Amino acid sequence: MSASTLDAYLNSQSPDRAAVSETVRFLATAAMATRSLIAQSSASALGAAAGGRNADGDFQRHLDVSADEAFLAAARQAGVRYYCSEEIDSAVDLNGPQQLALAIDPLDGSSNIDTNVSIGTIFSILPARAGEPAESFLQPGRNQLAAGFFIYGPQLALALTFGAGTRIFVHSPRLGTFVEAVRPSIAEKTDEFAINASNYRHWDDAVRLYVDDCLKGSAGPREKDFNMRWIASMVADAYRILIRGGVFLYPGDSRRGYANGRLRLIYEANPIAMLIEQAGGAATDGISAILDLAPSSLHQRTPLVFGAAREVARIGRYHTEPSVIAERSPLFGNRGLFRA
Ligand code: F6P
Ligand code: MN
Question: Which of 111, 145, 150, 283 could form a disulfide with 306 if both were Cys (CB 3.0 to 4.6 A apart)?
Fold first, then answer.
Protein backbone atom coordinates (compact mmCIF):
# COMPACT_ATOMS: atom_id res chain seq x y z
CA MET A 1 0.00 0.00 0.00
CA SER A 2 1.47 3.34 -0.94
CA ALA A 3 1.47 5.76 1.99
CA SER A 4 -1.25 8.31 1.72
CA THR A 5 -1.67 11.33 3.95
CA LEU A 6 -4.63 12.19 6.13
CA ASP A 7 -5.17 15.27 3.99
CA ALA A 8 -5.42 13.19 0.84
CA TYR A 9 -7.86 10.85 2.56
CA LEU A 10 -10.01 13.73 3.79
CA ASN A 11 -9.97 15.30 0.34
CA SER A 12 -11.12 12.03 -1.19
CA GLN A 13 -14.38 12.01 0.82
CA SER A 14 -17.58 12.77 -1.03
CA PRO A 15 -18.52 16.47 -1.25
CA ASP A 16 -21.43 16.04 1.16
CA ARG A 17 -18.87 15.01 3.78
CA ALA A 18 -16.72 18.12 3.26
CA ALA A 19 -17.70 19.73 6.57
CA VAL A 20 -17.03 16.48 8.43
CA SER A 21 -13.61 16.18 6.79
CA GLU A 22 -12.86 19.80 7.62
CA THR A 23 -13.75 19.14 11.25
CA VAL A 24 -11.36 16.18 11.40
CA ARG A 25 -8.65 18.41 9.91
CA PHE A 26 -9.08 20.97 12.69
CA LEU A 27 -9.19 18.24 15.32
CA ALA A 28 -5.89 16.89 13.96
CA THR A 29 -4.31 20.31 14.38
CA ALA A 30 -5.59 20.52 17.97
CA ALA A 31 -4.23 17.01 18.61
CA MET A 32 -0.79 18.06 17.37
CA ALA A 33 -0.86 21.03 19.77
CA THR A 34 -2.00 18.78 22.63
CA ARG A 35 0.78 16.33 21.77
CA SER A 36 3.37 19.15 21.98
CA LEU A 37 2.00 20.25 25.32
CA ILE A 38 2.29 16.70 26.65
CA ALA A 39 5.79 16.29 25.25
CA GLN A 40 7.15 19.54 26.59
CA SER A 41 5.53 19.97 29.97
CA SER A 42 6.54 18.30 33.18
CA ALA A 43 4.29 15.36 33.87
CA SER A 44 3.52 16.59 37.35
CA ALA A 45 2.41 20.00 36.03
CA LEU A 46 0.10 18.39 33.48
CA GLY A 47 -1.28 15.98 36.02
CA ALA A 48 -1.79 18.59 38.74
CA ALA A 49 -5.36 19.18 39.80
CA ALA A 50 -6.91 22.15 38.04
CA GLY A 51 -9.25 22.73 40.95
CA GLY A 52 -12.56 21.73 39.39
CA ARG A 53 -14.54 18.59 38.78
CA ASN A 54 -16.03 17.47 35.47
CA ALA A 55 -19.67 16.66 34.76
CA ASP A 56 -19.15 13.21 36.22
CA GLY A 57 -17.54 14.44 39.43
CA ASP A 58 -13.96 13.41 38.50
CA PHE A 59 -11.18 15.80 39.49
CA GLN A 60 -9.97 17.80 36.50
CA ARG A 61 -6.28 18.05 35.81
CA HIS A 62 -4.56 20.89 33.97
CA LEU A 63 -4.21 18.80 30.84
CA ASP A 64 -7.94 17.88 30.87
CA VAL A 65 -8.77 21.57 30.82
CA SER A 66 -6.15 22.59 28.19
CA ALA A 67 -7.22 19.73 25.92
CA ASP A 68 -10.87 20.70 26.24
CA GLU A 69 -10.00 24.30 25.32
CA ALA A 70 -7.96 23.19 22.30
CA PHE A 71 -10.73 20.94 20.94
CA LEU A 72 -13.46 23.48 21.63
CA ALA A 73 -11.42 26.02 19.64
CA ALA A 74 -11.09 23.45 16.84
CA ALA A 75 -14.87 22.93 16.84
CA ARG A 76 -15.41 26.69 16.51
CA GLN A 77 -12.88 26.96 13.68
CA ALA A 78 -14.57 24.10 11.85
CA GLY A 79 -17.93 25.86 12.10
CA VAL A 80 -19.50 23.05 14.14
CA ARG A 81 -22.98 23.88 15.47
CA TYR A 82 -23.09 21.95 18.78
CA TYR A 83 -20.32 20.86 21.14
CA CYS A 84 -20.44 18.51 24.08
CA SER A 85 -17.53 17.29 26.15
CA GLU A 86 -16.81 15.16 29.17
CA GLU A 87 -15.45 18.28 30.81
CA ILE A 88 -18.60 20.41 30.60
CA ASP A 89 -22.05 19.87 32.12
CA SER A 90 -24.30 20.74 29.17
CA ALA A 91 -24.08 20.81 25.41
CA VAL A 92 -23.14 24.20 23.93
CA ASP A 93 -24.59 25.96 20.89
CA LEU A 94 -21.56 27.36 19.05
CA ASN A 95 -23.82 28.77 16.37
CA GLY A 96 -21.49 27.50 13.66
CA PRO A 97 -22.82 27.27 10.09
CA GLN A 98 -22.22 23.51 9.72
CA GLN A 99 -25.06 21.26 10.78
CA LEU A 100 -22.76 19.08 12.85
CA ALA A 101 -22.59 18.09 16.49
CA LEU A 102 -19.22 17.16 17.98
CA ALA A 103 -19.01 15.06 21.14
CA ILE A 104 -15.60 14.67 22.66
CA ASP A 105 -13.63 13.09 25.48
CA PRO A 106 -10.73 15.57 25.34
CA LEU A 107 -8.42 13.46 27.44
CA ASP A 108 -9.15 9.79 27.84
CA GLY A 109 -7.14 7.88 30.41
CA SER A 110 -6.23 11.01 32.31
CA SER A 111 -5.34 9.05 35.44
CA ASN A 112 -2.28 8.06 33.39
CA ILE A 113 -1.08 11.62 32.66
CA ASP A 114 1.72 11.73 35.19
CA THR A 115 2.84 8.15 34.56
CA ASN A 116 3.86 8.73 30.91
CA VAL A 117 1.41 6.08 29.70
CA SER A 118 -0.56 6.60 26.47
CA ILE A 119 -3.64 8.82 26.71
CA GLY A 120 -5.90 10.14 23.98
CA THR A 121 -8.78 12.23 22.64
CA ILE A 122 -11.97 10.49 21.48
CA PHE A 123 -14.48 12.17 19.16
CA SER A 124 -17.86 11.52 17.59
CA ILE A 125 -19.44 13.61 14.83
CA LEU A 126 -23.23 13.52 14.48
CA PRO A 127 -25.68 15.37 12.25
CA ALA A 128 -27.12 18.37 14.13
CA ARG A 129 -30.82 18.15 14.94
CA ALA A 130 -33.42 20.80 15.57
CA GLY A 131 -34.18 21.66 19.18
CA GLU A 132 -32.10 22.20 22.31
CA PRO A 133 -28.34 21.63 21.90
CA ALA A 134 -28.55 18.34 23.84
CA GLU A 135 -31.06 16.91 21.32
CA SER A 136 -28.35 16.47 18.71
CA PHE A 137 -26.39 14.19 21.00
CA LEU A 138 -29.33 12.03 22.05
CA GLN A 139 -29.34 9.93 18.88
CA PRO A 140 -28.03 6.40 18.43
CA GLY A 141 -24.36 6.01 17.59
CA ARG A 142 -25.45 4.35 14.34
CA ASN A 143 -26.08 7.93 13.10
CA GLN A 144 -22.45 9.01 13.55
CA LEU A 145 -21.01 10.57 10.40
CA ALA A 146 -17.45 9.97 11.58
CA ALA A 147 -15.68 8.84 14.73
CA GLY A 148 -12.15 8.44 15.89
CA PHE A 149 -9.49 8.94 18.49
CA PHE A 150 -6.03 10.40 18.69
CA ILE A 151 -3.58 8.52 20.86
CA TYR A 152 -0.65 10.32 22.47
CA GLY A 153 1.74 7.41 22.80
CA PRO A 154 5.23 6.66 21.54
CA GLN A 155 3.59 7.65 18.25
CA LEU A 156 0.85 10.23 17.80
CA ALA A 157 -1.75 8.26 15.86
CA LEU A 158 -5.31 8.73 14.67
CA ALA A 159 -7.84 5.91 14.32
CA LEU A 160 -10.59 7.22 12.06
CA THR A 161 -13.75 6.02 10.39
CA PHE A 162 -16.30 7.65 8.11
CA GLY A 163 -18.36 4.45 8.09
CA ALA A 164 -16.46 2.76 5.26
CA GLY A 165 -13.71 0.93 7.13
CA THR A 166 -11.31 2.11 9.80
CA ARG A 167 -7.97 3.70 8.99
CA ILE A 168 -5.00 4.40 11.22
CA PHE A 169 -2.81 7.38 10.46
CA VAL A 170 0.47 8.02 12.27
CA HIS A 171 1.90 11.50 12.64
CA SER A 172 5.24 11.92 10.92
CA PRO A 173 7.32 14.63 12.64
CA ARG A 174 9.50 14.68 9.52
CA LEU A 175 6.60 15.37 7.14
CA GLY A 176 4.63 17.37 9.70
CA THR A 177 1.47 15.47 8.82
CA PHE A 178 -0.43 12.25 9.44
CA VAL A 179 0.38 9.35 7.12
CA GLU A 180 -1.77 6.26 6.64
CA ALA A 181 -0.22 3.31 8.44
CA VAL A 182 -2.72 0.45 8.73
CA ARG A 183 -6.21 -0.57 7.72
CA PRO A 184 -7.02 -2.60 10.80
CA SER A 185 -9.02 -5.79 10.60
CA ILE A 186 -9.85 -7.43 13.92
CA ALA A 187 -9.70 -11.24 13.91
CA GLU A 188 -12.97 -12.73 15.09
CA LYS A 189 -11.30 -15.00 17.64
CA THR A 190 -8.84 -14.08 20.35
CA ASP A 191 -6.97 -15.31 23.38
CA GLU A 192 -6.31 -11.91 24.96
CA PHE A 193 -8.75 -10.05 27.19
CA ALA A 194 -8.68 -6.70 28.98
CA ILE A 195 -10.58 -6.01 32.17
CA ASN A 196 -9.84 -4.36 35.51
CA ALA A 197 -9.75 -7.57 37.52
CA SER A 198 -9.61 -5.74 40.84
CA ASN A 199 -13.38 -5.37 40.49
CA TYR A 200 -13.93 -9.13 40.37
CA ARG A 201 -15.94 -9.25 43.57
CA HIS A 202 -18.26 -6.50 42.30
CA TRP A 203 -19.10 -8.14 38.96
CA ASP A 204 -22.22 -10.12 38.21
CA ASP A 205 -22.06 -13.88 37.71
CA ALA A 206 -21.90 -13.71 33.91
CA VAL A 207 -18.74 -11.61 33.87
CA ARG A 208 -17.08 -13.60 36.66
CA LEU A 209 -17.83 -16.83 34.89
CA TYR A 210 -16.47 -15.57 31.61
CA VAL A 211 -13.22 -14.45 33.23
CA ASP A 212 -13.00 -17.66 35.30
CA ASP A 213 -13.21 -19.66 32.08
CA CYS A 214 -10.45 -17.58 30.46
CA LEU A 215 -8.23 -17.97 33.51
CA LYS A 216 -8.61 -21.75 33.49
CA GLY A 217 -6.74 -21.61 30.19
CA SER A 218 -5.92 -24.79 28.36
CA ALA A 219 -7.11 -26.86 31.32
CA GLY A 220 -10.57 -25.27 31.21
CA PRO A 221 -13.54 -25.13 28.87
CA ARG A 222 -11.86 -22.70 26.48
CA GLU A 223 -9.03 -25.18 25.93
CA LYS A 224 -6.51 -22.44 25.33
CA ASP A 225 -4.39 -20.14 27.47
CA PHE A 226 -5.36 -16.47 27.68
CA ASN A 227 -3.23 -13.41 28.12
CA MET A 228 -4.51 -10.35 29.97
CA ARG A 229 -3.79 -6.62 29.47
CA TRP A 230 -5.30 -3.60 31.22
CA ILE A 231 -3.82 -0.18 30.47
CA ALA A 232 -6.53 1.94 32.14
CA SER A 233 -6.56 4.22 29.08
CA MET A 234 -9.35 2.96 26.85
CA VAL A 235 -7.73 4.51 23.79
CA ALA A 236 -4.60 2.44 24.40
CA ASP A 237 -6.55 -0.78 24.92
CA ALA A 238 -8.64 0.00 21.82
CA TYR A 239 -5.54 0.74 19.74
CA ARG A 240 -3.98 -2.57 20.75
CA ILE A 241 -7.19 -4.39 19.84
CA LEU A 242 -7.31 -2.65 16.44
CA ILE A 243 -3.72 -3.71 15.79
CA ARG A 244 -3.54 -7.24 17.17
CA GLY A 245 -7.03 -8.20 18.29
CA GLY A 246 -8.44 -9.01 21.71
CA VAL A 247 -11.47 -8.12 23.74
CA PHE A 248 -12.14 -5.32 26.25
CA LEU A 249 -14.72 -5.31 29.02
CA TYR A 250 -15.82 -2.56 31.36
CA PRO A 251 -19.01 -4.10 32.72
CA GLY A 252 -21.47 -2.66 35.17
CA ASP A 253 -20.76 -3.74 38.74
CA SER A 254 -22.15 -3.45 42.22
CA ARG A 255 -20.09 -0.48 43.39
CA ARG A 256 -22.10 2.61 44.06
CA GLY A 257 -22.45 4.58 40.80
CA TYR A 258 -21.10 1.71 38.66
CA ALA A 259 -24.35 -0.07 37.76
CA ASN A 260 -23.63 0.86 34.14
CA GLY A 261 -19.87 0.66 34.38
CA ARG A 262 -17.66 3.65 33.95
CA LEU A 263 -17.59 4.62 30.30
CA ARG A 264 -19.80 7.26 28.77
CA LEU A 265 -22.04 6.25 25.88
CA ILE A 266 -21.98 9.39 23.73
CA TYR A 267 -18.32 10.38 23.61
CA GLU A 268 -16.53 7.17 24.62
CA ALA A 269 -18.51 4.02 23.77
CA ASN A 270 -20.17 5.21 20.55
CA PRO A 271 -17.04 6.36 18.72
CA ILE A 272 -15.04 3.32 19.87
CA ALA A 273 -17.91 1.04 18.80
CA MET A 274 -18.02 2.56 15.32
CA LEU A 275 -14.24 2.21 14.90
CA ILE A 276 -14.32 -1.38 16.11
CA GLU A 277 -17.31 -2.42 13.98
CA GLN A 278 -15.76 -0.77 10.94
CA ALA A 279 -12.62 -2.82 11.57
CA GLY A 280 -14.63 -6.05 11.60
CA GLY A 281 -15.15 -6.34 15.36
CA ALA A 282 -18.20 -5.91 17.57
CA ALA A 283 -19.19 -3.68 20.49
CA THR A 284 -22.05 -4.27 22.92
CA ASP A 285 -23.22 -3.36 26.39
CA GLY A 286 -22.85 -7.05 27.13
CA ILE A 287 -25.97 -7.92 25.15
CA SER A 288 -27.07 -5.20 22.69
CA ALA A 289 -25.01 -3.40 20.05
CA ILE A 290 -23.73 -0.12 21.48
CA LEU A 291 -24.53 1.71 18.23
CA ASP A 292 -28.24 0.84 18.53
CA LEU A 293 -28.67 2.24 22.04
CA ALA A 294 -30.77 5.39 22.29
CA PRO A 295 -29.07 7.79 24.71
CA SER A 296 -31.32 9.56 27.19
CA SER A 297 -28.80 11.90 28.79
CA LEU A 298 -25.54 13.52 27.80
CA HIS A 299 -23.18 11.92 30.27
CA GLN A 300 -24.88 8.56 30.65
CA ARG A 301 -22.69 5.54 31.21
CA THR A 302 -22.90 2.16 29.57
CA PRO A 303 -21.35 -1.22 30.21
CA LEU A 304 -18.96 -1.78 27.32
CA VAL A 305 -17.60 -4.92 25.68
CA PHE A 306 -15.72 -4.62 22.39
CA GLY A 307 -13.25 -6.37 20.13
CA ALA A 308 -13.12 -9.79 18.46
CA ALA A 309 -16.63 -10.43 17.11
CA ARG A 310 -16.94 -14.05 18.21
CA GLU A 311 -15.60 -13.33 21.68
CA VAL A 312 -18.04 -10.43 22.11
CA ALA A 313 -20.88 -12.71 21.00
CA ARG A 314 -19.71 -15.37 23.45
CA ILE A 315 -19.70 -12.86 26.30
CA GLY A 316 -23.27 -11.99 25.31
CA ARG A 317 -24.23 -15.66 25.70
CA TYR A 318 -22.81 -15.74 29.23
CA HIS A 319 -25.37 -13.04 29.96
CA THR A 320 -28.35 -14.36 28.06
CA GLU A 321 -28.13 -18.13 27.78
CA PRO A 322 -25.56 -19.55 30.14
CA SER A 323 -27.27 -22.92 30.21
CA VAL A 324 -26.62 -23.55 26.52
CA ILE A 325 -22.89 -22.96 26.73
CA ALA A 326 -21.20 -26.30 26.51
CA GLU A 327 -18.64 -25.43 29.13
CA ARG A 328 -21.39 -24.95 31.70
CA SER A 329 -21.40 -28.74 31.89
CA PRO A 330 -21.03 -30.42 35.29
CA LEU A 331 -17.56 -31.39 34.18
CA PHE A 332 -16.32 -27.93 34.96
CA GLY A 333 -18.15 -27.52 38.21
CA ASN A 334 -19.93 -24.30 37.42
CA ARG A 335 -23.45 -25.57 37.60
CA GLY A 336 -25.84 -23.64 39.73
CA LEU A 337 -24.22 -20.26 39.19
CA PHE A 338 -27.18 -19.18 37.15
CA ARG A 339 -29.89 -20.42 39.48
CA ALA A 340 -33.21 -18.82 38.66
O1 F6P B 1 -12.25 7.42 30.66
C2 F6P B 1 -12.34 6.43 31.57
C3 F6P B 1 -11.10 5.61 31.71
O4 F6P B 1 -9.97 6.38 32.08
C5 F6P B 1 -10.74 4.74 30.50
O6 F6P B 1 -9.81 5.35 29.66
C7 F6P B 1 -10.18 3.48 31.14
O8 F6P B 1 -10.39 2.34 30.33
C9 F6P B 1 -10.93 3.41 32.43
O10 F6P B 1 -11.39 4.70 32.75
C11 F6P B 1 -10.09 2.88 33.56
O12 F6P B 1 -10.91 2.69 34.65
P13 F6P B 1 -10.38 2.01 36.00
O14 F6P B 1 -9.44 3.01 36.62
O15 F6P B 1 -11.65 1.82 36.80
O16 F6P B 1 -9.70 0.73 35.65
MN1 MN C 1 -12.32 8.79 28.95
Answer: 283
What pLDDT is attached to residue 51?
72
Residue 328 has pLDDT above 80, yes or no: no
Helix (H) or strand (E) holding 171: strand 166-172
Query: In the 8-state DSSP scheme, what is residue 205?
Result: H
Query: What's the pLDDT score for residue 242?
Result: 98
pLDDT at 47 over 80: no
* Domains of the chain (ranges, CATH numbers): 6-182 (3.30.540.10), 192-334 (3.40.190.80)
As residues whose CB is below 5 A from the ion ligand 2, the structure lists 105, 108
Long-range contacts from 218-226, C-beta under 8 angstroms, 24+ separation: 220/327, 220/332, 221/325, 221/326, 221/327, 221/329, 221/332, 222/327, 224/191, 225/191, 226/191, 226/192, 226/193
Residues in contact with 134: Cβ distance below 8 Å, sequence separation at least 6, in sequence order: 84, 90, 91, 298
Distance 301 CA to ligand 2 centre (A): 11
Relative to the CA of 110, which ligand 1 atom is closest? 4
